[in-house]
Amino acid sequence: MNTISVYNQTVDNPQIPVQKMELAARNIEKALLTDSNAPRLIDLMNINPQTGSTASGLTDQDYPILSNMPLTMNNMNQIKCVNNVPLPPEIVDHFTHVQCHCMMGLFAEISRAWLTVDSDIYVWTYEENNDLAYFDGINETILCVGLVKPKPGVFHAFIKYLLVLTTAVDIIVLGVTFTEGGSGPMGEIQLIPDPVFTIPTDGVTISTIAGTSGGRLFLGTKEGCLYEISYQAESGWFGKRCKKVNLSTSALSFLVPSFLNAALSEEDGICQISVDNSRHILYTLTEKGSIEVCDLGEKGNSFSRITKISQTTLVNQAMNTVKTLDSQNFRPIVGITALEAYESGSINLVAVSQTGVRFYMSVASLSNLQPNQRPYTLTLVHVRLPPGYSANVTVRPRAVHMCHYRDRNLILISTVNEKDVLWCMSSDLFPFSQSFMEAYNTVNLDGPALAIAEVRHDIHLYSNTTQEAPPMVVRQHAEARISMPVDLLKQILKESRGLDSEALKTFFLIQKEDQASATSLILASLDSDDNVEVAEYATRAFFMFGREPRVTPVNPTNIFSGSSMFSPNIISTPAPHQYQQNLYPQSPSLSQTLSPHQTSFEMSSPFTFSSRHNGICLYFARIVRLIWHRICVERVCMDGKTVTNQSTITSEDCIYILNNLTALRNFLMHNTQLSTVSNALANPPSCMYNNTSMNASRVNHTLQDAQLEERVSLDSLKSFVVLCCQIIGLWRILCEHQFHSLIGALPENQQQILQNTTFQDLILLRQDICSILIMTLINSYLGDNASVDSISSKLREVCPHLYRTEDAAFSKANEILKATRTIQNIDEREEMLFSALQLCKSIAPNINLSEICREFTALRAYKAVIELCLHCGQKIDPDKIAENYYNSDNNTADQEGFNYYQKRMKIYKQVLNMLDCLYVEQSKNQAPNIIQDRYYTTTQAILLDGLDQSHVGSEMQQVMNDILDSPDQILHMALYEWMVTKNMASDLIKIGKPSLETYLKHTTTQHPNNIIVMDLLWKFYESNGNHTSAAKMLSTLASRTG
């Protein structure tokens, strides 16, 4: 069997002490809990089922003005224009040919802009202003454009998106592909000229297009109907491959003539469709402000109309909530946005009016705001007024005609004096505030805005989640998106050039030191050529405002002080406990491994750690947040038949996490003053890593005690970051090597362990699993007859603590032994075996001895087994303490000698296992008596080859003679003991070695009732001419046997 095992080192072990890992893990858990206590969106709204919907935006603190903050923060903007990109010159030339209609928009999901000129459409990259694609295969004027994802399995894999173009006559769907090596972020775009299908409009005018993440395609019309293009994969292009389904008509509508139906209904065209892909709910907005809710089913594969609320009804509800304003402040509705489950569990939709008022709505009633329910109504929950309704702000948005909302950030485009102004309102600056606070600012645009879109980079770790996520400042490390505090700090640092400016002081005052320190770390640890200067400024601010640890009275609110709770000053009432548990359930395995006093978050401590320490804890916790309590492996059925074990994170996830972890690790390594401990305390005792590392009985703690306590904690964090980098790096390698096959090769019990192990447990408790996974990976290379050099080198580079130099050498030795099996030439086999033996001896005793000895035995390299075991014995016991113990008459108190003797005997057990194999083989072939004249002379060869089965006894004799020729007395004793157990007494007494007498006398002394050994002893004396001693032993035997 071609398998190896990575040796679990016990000598020169570089592993991180358990106490250090536990201390670091406790700090991470506390930081995670701190971030989990951030208030949810619905908590900020103070919803009360008895009093109904609520309102905000009327007080000064709802929109604090940054320029009026203490110590001034002039010219600090949360949004600004970064770049103006003109239209490609090829398109400008075509404007002179416009005859009827021109539209423009954005496909942010593929980093493209688009423009239609009559019946032609152009698509190009809006950042580089290149990769222009052009389609002119339509004869009619294009009226509506949309880009959607296709259903999986319907089209060829190279079709990544569907471009939907509608005219007055047809709905044309084109396939969109990308080629590698293009200048765009996704490669060069190509529009397949032949439409994948074309459907007649049947006289309706398409006004809006939307798709779901599952590939469903919806169309809204100016006649007020919602359609779905139902398409599927079929063997041919003919037949009913796709069809247009009217979802706004009932099953009995065919009984009413269409002209009568049109006459009786009031036309109210659909102007917007918004889809919640996480909860599978679709919303439509009409030109007259009505909002309809449609349920797509729990799995997103059905459709049912739930309810429709008119603009008048919504405005009346808002007036009942804000009684001081009239209806003109709430109408008309200009846009809607469906909220994903991670944005809010209970809030489902945000509608925006022309005056900038937001209406937060739920698909459940106020008395039953449980998260993620199936829709059954549409209820106004909260009214948020824009800036301008409080005393401190006089300017308010007017004539809003475009909006975009996501994740507590709102962008409005309003028109003032025929010029467009962009408004930005965001709560990112106040993520832990208990009130609904938002910062805002405006940007004057150079021209009219035709479209607005957010550049999103969705991360796999957040996909398909139904849990409400913490604020953006917490999870920005898991998304390719930087929160406002980071942008704001970067702007401050650039303008102040890292000096102790008033604006920088104010930033740390607003954010509070711990949160601001974590924000500084993002910039300080960012490794890029264009960030060198900012990183230096951020590092300076990190140390300048990070405070120092201090001795404080008992304060149960600082979780980073030993084991007590930490809570930045901007955190007040925690979120409900149920929310904390749902968001991040505690892993039972960690709490089971720590003693009760170690896991308690409520014990007091006499120290308050610095903001530098707390910021590092927060930053690290936010990097690993999404995987910390995530199960490592899940069983997935990919084809509907076979169930395989798949990693819950992808190699891309690992890369993203590793980039952040590596940046933090490099920062900690470069700034060694963070955890430098004096020489006297370079190796603090294990008690230093307990929660109560300082003697609890002491009362007069000093500043030096607090500094030492923090340095010990920072030292553990630094080591823990290094370990996390290596384990996540290993996981990335596994994901790149057919993960399901590697896990499938494990025994069933180990697969179940992985299915119930979180990444937290893998890092803290289950490094043995990591070793097993490395072993399985190496075995996969050996099984494919591939060299292990490349993968060994990669493992040594990525995870040197898990895969040491000894492991790499051991893997290479196994590769050589496996290759030896196919070699027929004796000399070549001898050379390869010698090479493998030298590799094994170079790493002894840190080697899986039993595994390698089995391989040598299978290749009949018996001398290699003897040499390797002797070498390991010498390495373990160079001073021959075991021999002294064995030869001592009174050794009962010599515990050290006994331990060395046991270690040596454990090593030599591999030699005895080899002898067992030979003995069984001899018994099967009924070989003659073992002890006879030597069949072979002693040579330096490793192999005992060339013997046929009839000479297996001679082969065994040669092996035993090689053992006896060695000077190792303990190995001799092991051989004699083995021969006694095999009833080889007659062969044993023919051995003329002095060590045999030592063995017999020692055994007789230790076991005076062992008649067999005493009988052997007098026979040994007799055969060696010592008749006197033989007579004495016979006399002793005679007296015992009566």
UniProtKB/TrEMBL annotation:
Compartment list: Nucleus
GO molecular function, one term: structural constituent of nuclear pore
Keywords tagged on the record: Nucleus, Transport
InterPro entries in the record: Nucleoporin_Nup133/Nup155_C, Nucleoporin_Nup133/Nup155_N, Nucleoporin_Nup155, Nucleoporin_Nup155_C_1, Nucleoporin_Nup155_C_2
Main location: nucleus
Gene Ontology biological process: protein import into nucleus; protein localization to nuclear inner membrane; RNA export from nucleus; transcription-dependent tethering of RNA polymerase II gene DNA at nuclear periphery
Protein family according to the UniProt entry: Belongs to the non-repetitive/WGA-negative nucleoporin family.
Name of the molecule in the record: Nuclear pore complex protein Nup155
Lineage: Eukaryota, Metazoa, Ecdysozoa, Arthropoda, Hexapoda
